[in-house]
C-alpha cells in the first residue's frame, strides 16, 4: 500500500487539529431526514462520514429520522445511527432541534415537505427530481429564494456532480481546456426492467414517480450535462416509449393502484425509455438517452463532451476515471488519456486515500453533505439550487411535450 | 507466433488445391474501376488480394482503371497494378473485355455511370452512398432489377458489413442470441473538420457530395444498424448543423465553386453533423449521430444493440473485437465479454491468420470482393443490393426532411 | 438511479430488524487501535461503518485510540470518532474495557504489541506484513494458537482478500471454474519513488520497515496469489534492486537515522523493487513484481490466473470489476468478460447498493471488520490467520535469500 | 469514411509518380522463398503488397517458391502468385535469376540454407529464431558479415519491430520521452496447448523446433524488449516447464519421431512455458513470460516500459494502439493515453489509410519487405541483422542454462 510519510502526516494532522482544542467546539448541524429506504441509507452514510473525513465548519448530527411505519423507522434509526424517530414529517419539521430537513421520499411528496420545512425556517436538501411537476418546482424555488433572504439554504440532490471525476471535468471545461463546445453525448443505461415479469413498483406509476426513466435517469443526465457544459439547453426533440405496458403487481402491495387487472397485473403508466436530441444555447448539439432496458448495462451514466480544443468522457461504471483528449497536442502523441481521479489535487481527494485507492458511489453523498455544510455555514447559495432543479424540470417537461407532439423541436421555457 | 501444424497445413493446402490442376482454369472476372483516389486504392487492394486468400470461383483481374487525368491515372495503374488505363468512363463501359464496373467516384456521378454500365451488360459495384438523390437511386435500383433478370448483379459498397466482427454480430442476432430488440445506439465520430482552417474540399459542397456527415458517415451507420437489427427503420426525427459555414479554398482548386468570397474562402453547403432518433418497425428505438467534430475520435463507428436476451457492441477503432453480453447467464458471472474475432469459425477468418492475429480496415474490401465474386459466379443477388442502397437513401431523405421541418417525426417512404 | 422497490425494501428491513427490539441488545466489541495515520484512518472507517451496513452479532465500539503524541492522538480521536485516548500502547493493552487490539503501526512494533495483547487476553487484528522477521512472526503465530485455545482470535490485515471482486475470484476458483492451474501472474505497481528527490521516509529504512516494496507490496500479492490459487508457493527465484540509494531527509525529521550525510541526505536501506518467479505446490508457475517505480501506475495490483478450464484477471485500479474467460465455451463466442462485481449475489454486496453502484478502497476495511466480528462472535479462526501471515513472511524471506544468492531457486520453509 | 481531399490527393499522386514515366524502370528484386505454410503465406502477402503501397527503389518480384512436395508447392505458387516452383532449396539458391532468398522453414534448416544462399551471393531474409543453436547463429552471423562486405545484406524476421505502434514506441524512447529506464515487463501469451489432446506437432519436438515457447515466443519478446529499450540484457534467471509431457501424434504423421508410445502418443521434448527475470546493462529490471497455456489469451504480446519521465505499453491484440504516460505532466491531468497509431506522421502510416482506419498483423510483413528493399537498394546493414539474431540466441541460451542450473543468475555472453 502506498503511504505518505506517516510521521509527516501525524505532524500535519496534529497541527491542523491543534487549534480546535483551544477554540470553542464546532456548532452542530442537526439533520432530520424523511424517508429511509435506498436514498435514506445513502444520505445517512453521507451525514455520518462527512465530518470524519473533511474539516467542516459545522458538525453534522443525525438527529431524527422520519417514516410512517414506526417499527421500520426505528429499525432504520438503529441501523443508520439516527438519534430519534418521527412517524409524521410534519412533527419533524416542527421540531426546534432540527436545523436541516433532508427529503428522501418519492417525488410526489417533495413539494409539500420542502415548502413546510422552508416555512419552518429549516435548511433543506431535497432528492432529485425536485418535484413531479413544473408548477410544484416553481413554488419550491420561490420559497427557496424567500428563505435564502432569511439565511436558509436549499439544495437539490444531483449527487453525480460530486463524483471527483465529474467535478474535475467541470473544472477543466471552465478552464477552457476543451474550448468551444460542439457536441455533448449523454446516456444513462440500466437494465432492471428487461424482464417483463419484474413487478410493478411505485417507480412505474405516474402518480407517485411523476415519470419513468425520464425523471429518474433523465433528470440526472440533463443536470449533469448542463453543469459540465456550463450552459443550458435551448430546446429538445424527443421520443419516449413504454415497451412493457402491463406488469405483475408486487406481492401483497395492492394499495391504491387504479388499473389492476384480474390476473394480478397493473398498468405501467410511465415511460420505459426516453431519447432526445437538443441544442445548447451556444449552438452545440446534444443527444440524451435514458433507459432501463439496456441489457448488461447496470449503471452506465456516460457523458462525452467534444470541443474545439479537446474532449472529455466519463462513465459512472468506472467512476474513478476521466478520459481526456487534449486536441492541442501534436497528433503523433495525442490520444484519450485515462486520468485516475485519485490525486490529492483532484476535487475532494485531499481528504481521502493515496493515489490509486478509489472511491465508490456512496462518496458522492459524503461530498454532497460536505458542500452543503459549507454553504449553510457560509450563507452561500448552494449548487445545485432549487432554481437549478426547476430548470431541469422544465427540460423534462419540454421532452414530454415534444414526445407528445410527434417529436417536434420544443424550446425550453426560460 | 502461434502456428497450426505446418505439415498438416501443407497437406490440407495441397489437397484443396490439387483438383485445380486437373480442372480447367478458373475463368477470370475482368474488373474496370472508375476513380483512383482513396477508395480506388482500397478497392485495388481488395481485388488484388481476394483471390490470393480465398478459394474463389472466378479469378479477379485488374483489367482497367479510369480517370480523367491521363498522367495521374497512369500513375495509379502502375501503383495499384491495373493493366490498362482509360480517361473516359464511357470508353471503359464500352469495352468488351470488362465484366464488372467498380464505381469509386464522388456521389454525383454514381447514377450516370452505373446506369450506363448496367445497360452495357456489366456487373456493377458502386461505392456508397448509392446516389445523391432518392430519384437517382430509384432509377439505379430499377436498372439493377432489370439487369438481374439478364444475369447481371449490382452491389453497393457498404463495406462495414464485412468486418468479421460485424458479420459475427449479424449472425448472432439472426440466431436469436439477443432476443427481442429494444435499443440500437449508433454513432460515427470523426474529427477532421474541427479546425476551422481545414479547406473547403469537394466533400463540403452539396453539388458534388450530396450531403456532408449525413451521406458520408450517416449512410454507413443507417445501413449497418438495419443490417445488424435485421429490420428497417420506420421513421426518424432529426437535427442537423453546420458549425463552420465558411472555409478557405484548397490551394489552386477554384474550379466551379459558386460562392467564392473575396478572401479565398467559400461556403460550406453541407451538414457538419447529423443527429437523429428513430423507431424500427418492431418498435425498438434507435439513436444515430454522425459528425466530423468529435475531437479525438478518428473513425469511431460504434453500434450497440440491446435485446431482451442480450446485447452486442462494436467499435470500428477496435475492429477485431465484438462485445457480447449474454443476458441469460446467472448475474453472478455475467458481463460484457470481449470476443477477439479472429477464430477460424468466425466469418471470413478460416482463410486468414491464426487466432489473435488481427485484420485491418482494408480487409473489408477483400471480403467485399470475395462476396461479390461469389454472387457473380452463382448468379445470386448480392447484399447489399441497389434496393438496399435506395432504402438507405430514403432514410437519409427522411432525416433531411425532418431536420427541415423542425425535427418532426418523419416516416420512411416504403 | 436504480432502486429496488422501496416499499419492499422497507418491509424487508423492518422484518430483519424487528426481532432486535424484542431481543436483548447486541453485545459490544470494544476496539482499541494503536496508530492513527493512513492505516488508522482506514481502520476507523471500517469499524465505524461495518455495523451500519451489515447485520453483525456484536456492535463494534471505537473505544480507544493510542499514539505517542498526546495532541495528535487526541486530534485523531476527535476526527475519527474514538472515545478515549492513550499515549502508551501498554496502557491500552492493560485496559479491562478493551476486547480487541487493532495494530496499525509500522512493522517493527507488531510483534511486541501483538504478543502483549494476546497475553492480556485480547483479540488482535494486526496490519500486514505480520512482522519484520520470520522469527517474530513465528512467536506471534505460537501466541495466536495458544490464545485461540483460550477463545481469542488473531487476524492479519490482508485487506485485499476482501475486495468483492477478489472474493468472487476465490469462490470461482474453489468451484473449479478455471480448472487445473497453470499460471499465476501478479504485479503490484506504484510510482511514488520515481522522483529521486522524494524524501527518505521511515518506509525506506530497514530498521523500521523491515523491507521496501517487498514487505509493503510483495506481502499483499504473495498472500493474494496463494489465497486465490488455493495453494502455496513451493519455491522462488528473485531479483531485488534499489535504484536510488540516497535520498534527502524529510524536513525536520532527523530522528535516529544512522547514515546521515553532510548534505541532509540518508541511505535508502530497503529494496525499491522486487521481481520473483516461483512454483506452486501443484506445479503451476508464478511471476511476481513489486515496485514503486512504475511511472503512471498508482495502485495497480494486478493478478491473472490461467487454468485448464478458464482464466481470471483483476486490477485494483478497477476494483469493481473481475475479468473472466470461460474456456469451456465455444470459441466463436468466448472472450474475457468484464463482470461488474456489484450484484446482490456477489460477496459482501447484498448489504450495499444496487447493481452498478461501485464500492471503493476503504470498503475492504469495512468487510475486514465485518468478517472479524463474525469470527470473534462465533469463535472461528479468522482468515487470514497469523499462521497465514507467517507463511507469507517465509515466502518473503525466501525471496530475500534467493536475491542474495544470485537468484538461485530457494524452497519455502514449511 | 474520412477522406483527404481527393483532388489534392490526385495531384499529389500524379506529381509523385510523374518522374517515373521519364526515368528508367525501377530494377526488380527477384525473391525466392523457401517454405510455404503459415509464414510463407504471410511473407507472400508482404512481397506482393509492399510495392503497391510504398514508393520503393526496387520492385519486388515473386520469382520462385520452394517446397519438397511438388504438388503442394505448385498449389502454393498458384495461390500466392509465385512465378516458378522449386522442390530443392539447393536448386533455388543456385539460380541466377534470384536476388534474395527468403527462408520460412522450421529453425533446424535455417543455418544450412542461409549459409548456402549467402555463399551464392544472395541477399537473405531469415525467419526467427535465427537458428536452433548459438553455434549455428554464430556461423550465420560471420557469413552475413562477410557477405555484407560484398554488398549482400542479411536480415532476421523479427516482424514485431514493424508494427507502427512498436516503431513509434522505439522512436519515443530514442527521443528520451520516458527517460532513464527502470522496468521492462514483457509477456507473450497464447493458449493453443491448453488442451492436452492437442497433437504433437513439429513445434513440440526439440530436434526440429530447437525449443518451445522460448524459441517461438520468447525470441520475439527478447528482441522486441531490447529493441525498444535501446539496450541489451546483461543476465537472466529462468524457470521453464513442460506441463503436458505426452501428447497424441498427429493423424498419419509418424515420420521420424523417436519416442512413440504404444498408444499413438509421443514425448513433448520442448518447454511449454518459460519465465525469466533479468537486468539490462543500464541496471533496469526486466521480466519475461512466454507461454502457450494462458487460457483465453490468443496472441497477447504485451510490453510495458517504465522510465523516470514516462511509460509506454503495447499489446499485440490491440496492435493499432500505444499507451503512453507522460510523467512530466501535472498529476491533475496525467494518465495513460491511448494513441491510435494511425496518423500520417506515425511510422509507415503516410502510405496507408486515413486516421482511425487500422492495420492488421500481416502489415508487419509488408513493412518488413519495404525496409529490406530499402536496405538492399542502399547497401545499408538491415535491422535486425544476423548479429542481432545471434545476440537474441545468446539470451535464449542463457535462459536455458539458468533453467538447468536451478535458476541461478546467468550472464549473457557478449
TrEMBL record, chains A, B, C, D:
<feature type="domain" description="Gfo/Idh/MocA-like oxidoreductase N-terminal">
    <location>
        <begin position="29"/>
        <end position="147"/>
    </location>
</feature>
<keyword id="KW-0560">Oxidoreductase</keyword>
<feature type="region of interest" description="Disordered">
    <location>
        <begin position="1"/>
        <end position="28"/>
    </location>
</feature>
<feature type="domain" description="GFO/IDH/MocA-like oxidoreductase">
    <location>
        <begin position="168"/>
        <end position="312"/>
    </location>
</feature>
<dbReference type="Pfam" id="PF01408">
    <property type="entry name" value="GFO_IDH_MocA"/>
</dbReference>
<dbReference type="InterPro" id="IPR050463">
    <property type="entry name" value="Gfo/Idh/MocA_oxidrdct_glycsds"/>
</dbReference>
<dbReference type="InterPro" id="IPR055170">
    <property type="entry name" value="GFO_IDH_MocA-like_dom"/>
</dbReference>
<dbReference type="Pfam" id="PF22725">
    <property type="entry name" value="GFO_IDH_MocA_C3"/>
</dbReference>
<dbReference type="InterPro" id="IPR000683">
    <property type="entry name" value="Gfo/Idh/MocA-like_OxRdtase_N"/>
</dbReference>
<dbReference type="InterPro" id="IPR036291">
    <property type="entry name" value="NAD(P)-bd_dom_sf"/>
</dbReference>
<protein>
    <submittedName>
        <fullName>Gfo/Idh/MocA family oxidoreductase</fullName>
    </submittedName>
</protein>
<feature type="compositionally biased region" description="Acidic residues">
    <location>
        <begin position="1"/>
        <end position="10"/>
    </location>
</feature>
